[in-house]
Each structure stands twice: as structure tokens, then as C-alpha cells.
Design brief:
Elements (H helix, E strand, L loop, with lengths): L2 H16 L3 E4 L21 H17 L10 E8 L5 E3 L1 H14 L4 E10 L2 E11 L13 E13 L2 E9 L1 H7 L10
Parallel strand pairs: 2-7
Antiparallel strand pairs: 1-4, 2-3, 4-5, 5-6, 6-7
């Protein structure tokens, strides 16, 4: 990591900690969670429980490649906001999108870099990688290794994911699948 990136990350972590956020993952050692925030024992209530819910979801659905389990983590009226990819509503629809990603990249590996929670929201910064063996977002299977950065915001309601705002590096996905090479990519 470059010096300016470390400084920026440290400043963001300091601001997040000052705002009372709970931190876990790679950032946990750099910015300890506020001592006044107790850890919850289940997925119902509190930033600690919400972080555990998202970590369990990412591990089960993505890392362990159980796309068919996605619906178990979603509210009936779940919403998935994916920028230019589109907005999707309903447990079955959102679960199908997540399952299609896992099916397209059967060796998908989500590497959580940072995870923060405040109230009913959890923010995750991760690096996603794997081999595109099936259609992904309408892109035919390429057999190529893909890797992209993502920052996702989840809203939790009654111990389940009610909304996700997904910010994936689509330029990296397009580049790695051989679909489009931006002029600034070497």
C-alpha cells in the first residue's frame, strides 16, 4: 500500500472510530472498536451482531459458494442497488442475482479488507477474485481470472439484510473478462 493510501485509510479509520463505529477485519488492529459498544449475542440488534451477520453471509454465500443460501439472509422485500447494473427488489430476485454471480465464478473468493457497522448499517470493503466460467452480468463466460475491488453497504432489519448498495469496480470486471480495456489500464 502506498503512503498516501495508508494516510487516507488511517484518517478514515480515525474518523469512523470517533463517530462511534465498530471495526473488524484488516482495520480492527489499526482502529479498535469503541469500548462502549457491547457485542450482541445474536444477529438481532447491535453493530457487533450486524457485522457477524454480514461476515456469515459473505462466507456462506460467496466464499463457500452456496448461492442457493442467499435467500436465507434476506428480508422478503429486500432491495439490491447496483448502480449502472440496476436496482432489484424482492428476496427471490436478489437471491437469484447473487446465485448467478456464484454460478458464474464457482471459485469466487471474497477477501474482506475492512468491515464497519453503525446502527443498522454495515459497510464492507473487499477484493473479489475467481475464474469466470459462466455468464456474468450478461458477459459470456471467458475462462479468465477476474479480480475487482468492492465497497458494499448493507442495511439490516430484524436480523436480515433488507438493502444492499453494491459498488463494484465494473471497469476491472470488463477488463478482466476481455470485454473492454480502458485506455488507462496498462
Amino acid at each position: 500500500m502506498k503512503k498516501w493510501q495508508r494516510v487516507t485509510l488511517a484518517a478514515a479509520l480515525a474518523a469512523a472510530t470517533a463517530a462511534g463505529l465498530t471495526a473488524s477485519g484488516a482495520a480492527a488492529s489499526a482502529a479498535p472498536a469503541a469500548a462502549s459498544q457491547p457485542a450482541a449475542a445474536s444477529f438481532h440488534g447491535g453493530p457487533g451482531a450486524n457485522i457477524r451477520l454480514i461476515e456469515t453471509f459473505l462466507n456462506d454465500v460467496l466464499a463457500e459458494h452456496h448461492g442457493d443460501h442467499a435467500a436465507n439472509y434476506l428480508t422478503a422485500d429486500a432491495q439490491f442497488h447496483a448502480g449502472t447494473v440496476g436496482d432489484f427488489t424482492g428476496r427471490a430476485t436478489v437471491a437469484a442475482i447473487l446465485a448467478s454471480v456464484v454460478a458464474a465464478i464457482p471459485d469466487l473468493h471474497p477477501s474482506v479488507q475492512d468491515i464497519f457497522a453503525h446502527g443498522d448499517e454495515v459497510v464492507v470493503r473487499l477484493v473479489v477474485s475467481g475464474t469466470q466460467e459462466g455468464p456474468l452480468l450478461g458477459i459470456p463466460a471467458s475462462g479468465r481470472h477476474v479480480r475487482w475491488d468492492a465497497i458494499d453497504l448493507y442495511r439490516i432489519k430484524d436480523g436480515k439484510i433488507s438493502q444492499e448498495w453494491a459498488s463494484e469496480d465494473l471497469t476491472a470486471i470488463l477488463n478482466d473478462t476481455g470485454t473492454y480495456k480502458a485506455p488507462w489500464i496498462p
